[in-house]
Amino acid sequence: MADKIKFYSSSVSSNLEIKKQQQKIEMILDSKKIDYEKIDISSSEKLKNEMREIMGDPKGVPPQLAKGHQYLGGFDEFDAAVENEQLMEFLKLK
Fold first, then answer.
1. Were both Cys, which of 39, 49, 71, 81 would link to 90 (CB 3.0–4.6 Å)?
2. Over the stretch 9-18, which tens digit does the pLDDT of each residue have?
């Protein structure tokens, strides 16, 4: 089975910009019927560390996307891929 897209987010962010970014990613993935796993890092230090390890950034913050253990990028990269109509390539689904 192919690796599933992992969408790292946080349900307890006080940063409005991060909340908007997370909503946009979720809305786009849902609208395109892309199968993904939403991972709420606020519930577990282990999950936060997993996200940061995949990113290679000890201070990384959500939203972030990965496919299995392969880091894909954060909101800016996702948004650029959507704008350039290259979302499937960005998500390594093509």
1. 81
2. 999 988 999 9
Answer yes or no: are the C-beta atoms of 92 and 81 closer than 8 Å.
no
CB count in 10 Å sphere of residue 5: 19
With a CB cutoff of 8 Å and minimum separation 6, the contacts of 40 are 9, 10, 11, 47
Can you give the pTM of this predicted structure? 0.94
Calpha distance 41→85 (Å, rounded): 29
What DSSP element (H or E) covers 20? helix 16-31
State the Cα–Cα distance between residues 7 and 43, nearest whole angstrom: 14
Which residue, 52, 53, 50, 41, is CA-closest to 13?
Answer: 41
